[in-house]
Specification:
Blueprint (H helix, E strand, L loop, with lengths): L7 E10 L3 H10 L10 E3 L2 E5 L8 H7 L8 E8 L7 H15 L4 H9 L6 E3 L2 E4 L7 H9 L2 H14 L4 E4 L14 E4 L4 E6 L2 E6 L10 H8 L7 E4 L8 H6 L5 E6 L2 H13 L6 E5 L2 H4 L9 E4 L9 H7 L4 E11 L3 H18 L4 E15 L2 E12 L5 H4 L1
Bound molecules: S-adenosylmethionine.
Length: 401
């Protein structure tokens, strides 16, 4: 039967344990190394994922990028099945754009450039597709879009959304450099930017035109959610729409989470999710600037989560004072140059120690874990340190000196 012939081709693949497959898939996608033309393939307990054939995708390069991955990844060449053209979103998008360029009678030489500059990645929340800020923004696309009718433009956005299995379309713009980190996502097609989705079994809701969602922090949300916080009181100083707050309340088993947040649009999402996940009994929202809300929580917490980039340093001292007199955990996020990570870790530890001493907390302060979450820019990483502050009668003499 000719119709059922399976198309297989030899590919470079990355292989890992089946249960780590989703994590590897996301990482390869983030680094533009995922080849969606081929279906991921399971063999027993392993998953093989095809890699893009680009020059940059050498085994050495991939190993470097995946160095912080806490599980084993193997590289091989093997036959993989092609994703049928009709379901591969990249090919559907190319076709939709090509058809629109022809229907709109765009000159072939410009069409060629526009096709080349089609979006290569996007994110999908609910039925809303979010394109990167570079999408349809190069000179040729800008010229074409300036000169077509509103009706044609609407058709393009609708076709693009539908080719990517969505019904609404938006384009990212840089996060505003404001305290509230306002989203500047522009809605291209659809009536509003409210999205609802599930992340590791937790329901989230937010308006993407007003609030940012850091999809790149997926591994960190998973990690924080899998730390046991049974019976603990937790303070989340930068709660947003609940990226970590909800995971700590639902998956880590925290007894109570105090969620501090300044942006009213984020609070709308957070309160929606608290109701939706039925967490009213174990989350309290503290609206406003955490410089004012954290002092109301002094002495109450077993753990403080400080998830602001590039740095949360302005609340470190408050966080120390929020911990109970016997101490607890701090999760400190920061953007740090790759080469300076070790130095930063020690500086952070000693700064926290000085702050603790200034506040009459006689604690041993140790960095128990350093998590490299993702690359923020070519040489800068988003890093999280888990810091344990424990009351001890025996203070390390070297540190007291
Ligand atoms: C980076 S977002 C949170 C993101 C989330 N933790 C993550 O990593 O995906 C930072 C949040 O902190 C809030 N924020 C910033 N400064 C604040 C302040 N001084 N007081 C309370 N919330 C603040 C912002 O409104 C924003 O929702």
């Amino acid at each position: 039967m000719a119709g059922s012939l399976i198309q297989e081709e030899i590919c470079n693949v990355a292989i890992c344990d089946l249960e780590k497959g989703e994590q590897l898939y996301i990482l390869l996608e983030q680094h533009s190394m995922l080849n969606t033309e081929f279906k991921p393939q399971t063999t027993g307990t392993e998953l093989a994922i095809a890699l893009t054939p680009s020059q940059r995708t050498t085994e050495h390069h991939i190993k470097q990028l995946l160095a912080p991955v806490p599980f084993e990844v193997r590289f091989e060449r093997r036959f993989m099945q092609r994703t049928p053209a009709s379901v591969d979103p990249h090919r559907r998008l190319t076709k939709a754009i090509q058809a629109w360029l022809v229907d709109t009678k765009i000159e072939p030489s410009i069409s060629e450039i526009c096709r080349e500059h089609r979006p290569k990645k996007w994110e999908k929340y609910d039925d809303l597709i979010i394109l990167p800020e570079t999408a349809f923004a190069n000179e040729s696309w800008a010229g074409v879009l300036r000169n077509v009718s509103l009706e044609d433009k609407t058709l393009l956005w609708k076709d693009v959304a539908e080719s990517l299995y969505g019904t609404r379309l938006a384009r990212q713009h840089p996060i505003a450099n404001t305290v509230q980190r306002d989203s500047q996502t522009e809605l291209l097609h659809g009536k509003d930017g409210w999205v609802e989705f599930t992340d590791h079994g937790v329901q989230f809701g937010l308006d993407v035109t007003r609030v940012m969602f850091s999809s790149g922090n997926v591994t960190e949300r998973r990690r924080i959610g899998s730390i046991s916080m049974e019976g603990e009181t937790v303070v989340d100083a930068y709660a947003g729409v609940g990226y970590y707050t909800l995971h700590m309340a639902m998956r880590s088993g925290a007894k109570h989470v105090h969620a501090c947040e300044i942006n009213p649009h984020s609070i709308t999402g957070l309160e929606w999710a608290i109701r939706e996940n039925q967490l009213e009994h174990c989350i309290t929202v503290h609206p406003g600037d955490n410089q004012l809300t954290l002092p109301t929580l002094y002495g109450k917490a077993d753990r403080c989560h400080l998830g602001l980039l590039p740095s949360s340093k302005t609340v470190w001292e408050h966080a120390i004072r929020c911990l109970k007199p016997e101490g607890g955990w701090l999760h400190v996020h920061m953007n740090v140059a790759e080469q300076a990570i070790d130095e930063w870790v020690e500086q952070t530890r000693s700064t926290l120690e000085e702050m603790a001493q200034r506040n009459a907390r006689q604690w041993n302060i140790e960095v128990e874990h350093v998590e490299k979450v993702k690359w923020y820019s070519p040489h800068v990483r988003h890093v999280v340190v888990d810091v344990l502050c424990s009351k001890s009668s025996i203070i390390d003499e070297n540190r007291v000196k």
